[in-house]
Predict the structure.
Amino acid sequence: MKHQKKLPELLSPAGSPEALKAAVAAGADAVYFGGSGFSNRMRAKNFSSDEIGEAIAFCRGYGVRCYITVNTRVRDIEMAEVLDFCRSLAEYGADALIVADMGIASAVVREILPHYPTLELHASTQMSLATAHDGEMLRTLGFSRMVVPRELHERDLRRVCENSPIAVEMFIHGAHCVSYSGQCLMSWAMGGRSGNRGECAQPCRMMYSVERDSEDMKTVKSRYPLSLKDMCLASHIPEIIDSGAASLKIEGRQKSAAYVYGVTSVYRKLLDERRAATKDEIKYLDSLFSRDGFTDGYFTGNYAKMLGVRPEDAESAASGAEYDFSHRRRRLTAEFSLRSDAPARFTLKLGDVSASVEGGIPEKASQAAVTEESAAKNLTKFGGTPFVLDKNDIRFSIEDGLYYPVSGLNVLRRECLEKLTAQIGAGSPTAERDIGGFRKPETSPVMGEKTCEVLFARGITEEMRAFFDRIYVPWRQFTAADKAKKGAEICALLPAAVYDDGETARILESLKKAGCTRVMVNTLGQLRSAMEAGLKADGSFRLNLTNSEALEAWYGMGLTAAVISPELKLPAIRDLSYPCAVTVYGRIPLMLTERCFVSDGGCALRGKDKPCRAALTDRKGERFPVFSDGSCRSVIYNSRKIWMADRLGEIRNMSSMHFMFTDETAAEIAEVLEGYENGYAAPEKDMKRL
């Protein structure tokens, strides 16, 4: 007989106190929510400090775990405040912190975890984690769980669940971002509202026109080429249980309590019965909220018909509903002792947790003596609490002929329950926590370097070789012939997303054979793989580094250089205490998408090592270039190029300079290099500034 896999945790969203109660009533094993700051859903109602404490206490009673989102990127000036916030969460009894910023993680591990051994650290999906090597690196840093991307195919999910040394959490229902999690800068570029700081304006839900650059592509007809339908994996519950995923996450912190209750109820039933959803259940989920239906395209590999839009982007909100928690009340056992020569004693037990209190010494009864029946009448009054105690679950030891006041019995019950509740919240220390991965850097990165990355290696000019110290080319375009030429060191840029450590190892091996000694990495797992291969590793802008703690953490893990997030302004860059590279020129990649939205239903270029090109134009006429390679992943670039040649004096003394070239001609590249050698003002009106 095949061994039945353990049921995964059902994790529900709570964007408000009412939604939290709805999730608990509907059967969630755990809830996740954020405070008034440092959360990646700042448009949700979220929780005040007092509400967080009340929410954790409420959930603790029903045995529901609380994970608090601290999943934004912060600046140096904010680090002390966010650390105080995390400390308060630990004091309230939070079960875990969900973080995306390696700087926050490093500070929490150093300052908080040693004092709160039960507090867990979960790595947000914003960290772009998908492989066992990611999990191995996270384990050494003190993490116990990672949230994998929505883009994972079932085979990739199984692979990471089977090989990761830490728990894997996955999304099963809710909104789809068209971009890889943690790899979207579009909201920041278009309006200054950073998705990495919880302020996403959802530009992916807007209208765009699509221009194609190849007659081999069938142009997508949708006016909303970036708007995906909501994910729904309700039809795949048996496969997901079998994969070994530890936690199944419902997205929706900006949704109503009614939505949270409805979706959680359906998935609770499916998990308990270990089955796929029926057509009627899918129809019910659709009635709660969808964008022209659902998609399971990433999980199944069927990317067709993933687009969808909802004109009125809000479900009907039912507020003030009363939820029934009776089915979630937990059964207690108890002991009550009343002896003439000792204080009255009452003990409550919940599983392995117990609490005992003592009262006064009983008197001899002049009238009605205490009996099991009369004592039980008061000791079982647990109405309005998450617990229930039946008379038959109390073990009595009552001496005949004794009197004890009813008020005294009530005091015993209340005090014992308070003590038990505190014991329930104490938890057990996280097993085998390894927090030795955060180390001080052994060496400091070189300052004052000039580096660049190019989209096409064939466009590298002699002027570029003379101007730059290093040039990063896409790994497929790295050749020994280019490496052997004089001037700038030619390095390889690894793929922005790889779901298989074996594939990364094969890429690195081919690069080593071609003479490559240095690569640019985009994830924790790639850093580990590069170091195992004996290659130097530099960090790309995709690591979203925004503070000194994060730089120190990554340098301590082995990075030799790093490009900071382009979202940082010059004042924040000046605050950094470690050298880094600042992107001073070029089009920033704003989105990385798993599916090709330019061709929806077939492309003659698929599988060929020939980049295809397209462009998106928004309602304001801004044109965003798009490039896609033979793997059919698309990268959307900013409509405007960064230009900082006339402000290099503010950058040179603290950082290195990094350039990004896409489709510039040799003549245009020469003009750029001349401009930066001489500090020219921006040659075009609509250049972007830091």
Observations:
- The mean pLDDT is 90.
- DSSP finds 20 helices and 34 strands in the chain.
